[in-house]
Automatic annotation (TrEMBL):
The keyword Electron transport does not apply. This is Protein-arginine kinase. It comes from Bacillus seohaeanensis. Its EC number is 2.7.14.1. ATP binds at residues 27-31, 91, 125, 176-180, 207-212. CDD domains: bacterial_phosphagen_kinase. Catalyzes the specific phosphorylation of arginine residues in a large number of proteins. Is part of the bacterial stress response system. Protein arginine phosphorylation has a physiologically important role and is involved in the regulation of many critical cellular processes, such as protein homeostasis, motility, competence, and stringent and stress responses, by regulating gene expression and protein activity. Residues 24-254 form the Phosphagen kinase C-terminal domain. One of its GO terms (molecular function) is protein arginine kinase activity.
Length: 360
């Protein structure tokens, strides 16, 4: 296994699996922030300290237990900027780690459901990604990995404050639980502007597809907890689960209402977007995300039957700037990316349609 394997696979293998409520919930993520006691936080440590932390983690992973999965250790300082961008677009590393110039690393599982970042904002960040609504399952896996780290490293912990982290907002459990949701119904019925402030009042936060500071492209929203201190990990996950289940119900109701009141307009929107994807020659990233969202909604509502929902997951990743350039073998100007994006989408949808016809 090598870096190229993770770069060349468009979609992480776990993304091809169906999970609970996967028509609305794309993925569930658990992230645990941890720091080593003997080193300063990332805002203060030296390049030499950063290098020592990476070496310590690498040495311990030589004896990583097989029952927790096959893992690959990759140093980010040896990666090209484009390679890091591709890993970021696949949600395997954070934008922060992709941009950092100091010594860092990432440990990835074979199917990419586990990503352990070294020297991101914190010394160690354990991330577990599962398809659909599986927060409890992701938490259980993250806790197994956390137990292993606890057995191997002296982690920064205070009896009153909990785990100590670089950013005060993560102190306590160090837990960030989040779900990625596709919410076109609530956007089209203009309910999201009302729902987002209500979510914020509950101590949760709504962000875009790549987290803090990113845009909600393709009607995809990331909902996560803000409070990490004063609640147990289980309580944090239960609170988020309760809210997500309510949003699922609201999204389903919004979709039902659109079908009842605006069926022909909705069907027209879906097929116009499909036409753009199938025949367009120049497609910008925002337009691609919007059209892919419309087509995914059309698949979920039964308008479109010969295209798999998973193909839309693949295209959402494949059409990002980093992936386009990775597949093209080098840098592309914006207009070249838009042309290449359109070509890739056309070819992938044509192949999917042909495969579907052969199966009939």
């Amino acid at each position: 296994m090598s870096l190229e394997k993770f770069l060349n696979n468009t979609v992480s293998s776990w993304m091809n699996d169906e999970g609970p409520h996967s028509d609305i919930v794309l993925s569930s993520r658990i992230r645990l922030a941890r720091n080593l006691t003997d080193y300063r936080f990332s805002t203060l440590y030296s390049s030499e300290e950063a290098r020592e932390i990476v070496e310590k983690v690498k040495q311990e992973f030589d004896s990583f237990p097989k029952n927790l999965g096959e893992m690959e250790f990759l140093s980010t300082d040896q990666m090209q900027p484009l390679q890091k961008r591709v890993l970021m677009e696949k949600h395997l590393i954070s934008p922060n780690l992709a941009e950092e110039s100091h010594f860092g690393a990432v440990v990835l599982s074979n199917n990419e459901d586990v990503s352990i970042m070294v020297n991101e904002e914190d010394h160690i960040r354990i991330q577990c990604l599962y398809p659909g609504l599986q927060l409890k399952e992701a938490l259980a896996k993250a806790n197994e990995l956390d137990d292993w780290f606890e057995s191997r490293f002296d982690l920064a912990f205070d009896e009153q404050r909990g785990y100590l982290t670089t950013c005060p907002t993560n102190v306590g459990t160090g837990l960030r639980a989040s779900v990625m949701m596709h919410l076109p119904g609530l956007v089209l019925t203009q309910q999201m502007n009302r729902i987002i402030p209500a979510i914020n009042q509950l101590g949760l936060v709504v962000r875009g597809i790549y987290g803090e500071g990113s845009e909600a492209l393709g009607n995809i929203f990331q909902i996560s907890n803000q409070i990490t201190l004063g609640k147990s990990e289980d309580d944090i996950v239960e609170d988020l689960l309760s809210l997500v289940e309510q949003i699922i119900t609201q999204e389903q109701s919004a979709r039902d209402a659109l079908v009842k009141t605006s069926n022909i307009q909705l069907e027209d929107r879906v097929y116009r977007s499909l036409g753009v994807l199938q025949y367009g020659r120049i497609i910008e990233s925002k337009e691609a995300a919007r059209c892919l969202s419309d087509v995914r909604l059309g698949i979920d509502l039964g308008y479109i039957e010969n295209i798999s929902r998973n193909i839309l997951n693949e295209l959402m990743i494949l059409t990002q700037p980093g992936f386009l350039q990775q597949y093209s073998g080098g840098p592309l100007r914006p207009n070249e990316r838009d042309s290449r994006r359109a070509t890739l989408i056309r070819e992938r949808l044509k192949l999917e349609t042909q495969n579907s016809e052969e199966e009939l």
